[in-house]
Structure formats: C-alpha cells, structure tokens
Amino acid sequence: MGCCNRRCGLIAGAVFGAAVAILGGVLIPVGNKIIQETVEKEAVIEPGTTAYDTWTAVGAKVYRQFWFFDVKNPLEVVQHGSRPVLVERGPYTYRTRYLPRDNITFNPNETASFLIPFGAIFEPSMSVGPEEDEITSLNLALAGAYSLISPELHLALEILIRTTNASLFQRRPVKELLWGYKDPMLKETVGLFPDYNNTFDGYYNVYTGKNDISKVGIVDMWRGSRSLRFWNNTYCDMINGTDASSFPPFLKKKEPLYFFTSDICRSVSASYEQTRNLKGIEVYRYSLLPSTLASPLDNPDNKCFCSNMKTTRNCTLAGVLDISTCQDGRPIYISLPHFLHGSQELRDSLVGLNPHEEHHKTFLDVEPTTGFTLNFAKRIQVNMMYGPSKVITVLKKVKDYTIFPLVWLNETATLDDATADMFKRELISRIQMLEIAQQALLGVGVAIFVICLISYCVVRRRNHQSKFA
Predict the structure, then answer these.
(1) What residue segments make up the domains of the chain, in order of their start?
(2) Interval 260-298: pLDDT, tens
(3) Whole-model pTM?
(4) Rounded CA separation 279/62 (Å)
C-alpha cells in the first residue's frame, strides 16, 4: 500500500510539474501578447499615452555644436591659387528644440498636424570661446553671387566687389556667420542660418498610429504636400518614414529605418549597425550607409539628386548634395563632416580635412520594443562653391571649382537619467518580470516533472526487484 501511495504521489508530482511547465509555456505567447497590446496602446500619439506625453514635452535637451573651418592662408589662395589651409575651430554650442511643438491639431484621417519652432540659445560652458570669436571663412555673398549669375555678368560683379573692397575670404564673428549680418556688397542680411530664431519647420502631418500602429509617426504631409517639390523626380521627391524622433514599435534588425529631414530636403534610410546598452536600456544603433551620398555611378537611385553637371564632374562626384533648389536658390552643398564617404578630390583641393567614421557619422539609438529614439547624433557639413573666372580679380588664380566647407554641425540629444529610470521602471522592468515568471514556471515545472518521473521509475524498479527476491 505504501509503495502504491508513493508511486501515485510521484505520478501526481510529475503531472503537476508538467502542468506548471505547460503554464510557463502558455505564458510566453500570452505574455508577448500582453506586452504587444500595452506597447501598442502607449505608442499611439493621443492624449493620455506615454507617446503623447513624450511627443508634446520639450523632453531631452537638444544641442547643436558647430565647428568652423578657419582659413590660415587667404592671401596665398587669392594671389597664387594655393590650396586653402583649414584649421577646425569649435565647438560653439547652442541649445535648440527647447520650444514644444506648436499648433497641434488632430485630424479626422488619424493624423496630427503641428509646427516645430526653431530657436537657439548659446551655451558658453559647452563652447571653446564666446560668440564674438572671429573666423576667417569664405565670403558668403561673393560665393553666392558667383554661383547665381552667368559668366556674362561677371564684369558687373567685379565692379561691385571693387566698390565694396570685398575679397574671396572674410573675417567675422561666429555669431554673425551663423545668424546673419548686413553684407556691404549685397546690402541685405547674409548668414548660414539667418532668422533661425523666428522661423518654424513644417507644417507636419504625421499618423497617430490609432487603428494602425505600424504607421505611428510616419509623415503623411509636409507643408501641405505628400511629396517634395525640389527634385522634379517622383523617387527623389518622396517623403518616407518619420521625422526620426520615433518609429513604429517592434523593430527588426534586418529592416532599415526611413526618415525625412528638412535640413537636407530629402528622405534617407539608416541600417542596423549594432546593439548597445544606453543607461541600462538595450538599444539598436542605426547609421547612414555610405551609399546615401554616393555618386550615381555607385548608387543609380541618386541620379535624380544630381542637378549640376559642371560642379559634380558629370555626376561622378560622391559625398555632396546640392540643395539650392530648397534654399531659395542659395548655392548650398550638404555633406558629411570632413567629406566623410566623399570623393577624394573633395579633400585634395583643401588642406586640413581628416574624416573619421566614429566622430563624423550620423546615427540613431532606438529602443526596439517601443520604437522611441533615445539617443542620436545628426552630423551635417554646410559647404559653398567657388571657381575660376577670367574677369573677377579675386578668382583669376583659382584653378578649378572648389566645394568649400564652411561649418559642420552635430545636433545631438540623449535621454537623461530620470527619463531612463522611468523608462526602465515603466516598461523594461515589467517586461523582464514577465519573462522571469515565464522562465521560472517553465524551468520549475520541467524540473519537477523530470525528478518525479525519474523517482517513479526508480521506485517501480525496486518494487519489481523485491517481488522476485
């Protein structure tokens, strides 16, 4: 009777263990479903959700750091056609994006429209010097006029240059170069980012994700249009992806992230690079591929971004993007800092450029479950072009067209410690607790089942042997 009770107990234990293991196994899809439903609910951009609270708040501090290229031999360039010798100076740091989204309106088609106010506040403690530091840089007005007028009018430009005693290079304070100054030659405000503090980016229309979380954050329209009007090409004028502040949840490493950036007037994609730990949170790092600004010879998709055959060497030049069509005709060329991933001839025409992948690439660190961007560095170089002229005195010694780097910027932000702790407490810890419960139930159940099953077999064998003893 005792042996029977023991075997029955072991059988019951094995059944119990199997039940616990099955419960742990069942909890895996159930738990995943709970996680998915929770994330999908909180990722929707509507009042009361985590995504909305993050989206509407100023959030993490966003900084723009500027590095200027100081010309050390301006007279030699003008008088002898020497290559410009450049020395990088910076950073000069400003806090930006400190104003929340403005004019937020929810629309019947499950989109939200808004404006992004621009503003910049100088941060002396994060800068190498004051805004009054002077930089010897390209004369913006002269280079712009040279590019915009036909060679037949160069004589008129030469007269204007002589009248105002202008030259190819000028020395001005950082503040004026960035935010504008009254140019003596053009008699109007000239600068890299004039009137930045009084302008907006947008209107944007983005999907809220309601009823379809796979579309959350994706740009539906920008400035009232579903496509751009800069490139005269359906492919290049497409607006793809989000504004990069967030992406639809549940990222997959093999799938690139698409986002639109008005700074370069086009959409781009970023590919998975590696998994990193950011303040205790697992994030996926995505970065731009070298093919983003490759020449059409290497990336035929970029053919429609090539508009000037002369300055791009018949579209064989890699690493620069002419965005004059979205800059009111101003001859601005965008590249990565120090012409990273650009053609060697871009760097050969200058002295002092040293591209470095780690320091000059653009990347995003995105939490894969929620799709929230928790850390990023957007690095862009602003360039202008000048070239030879038989009429303009300060350009007579110039041998060829030169894409000249004015400044490169690093716009960066990362979540602070308080936000990281909240993120881990509200999401990561709950997911980890559920996973621990799943694994514990499965492990304990399997262990009980195996122990009871082995014990049952041992007891049965002993009982069998005792009958024949």
Answers:
(1) 2-40+445-467, 61-98+119-198+227-415
(2) 999 999 999 999 999 999 998 999 999 998 999 999 999
(3) 0.85
(4) 18
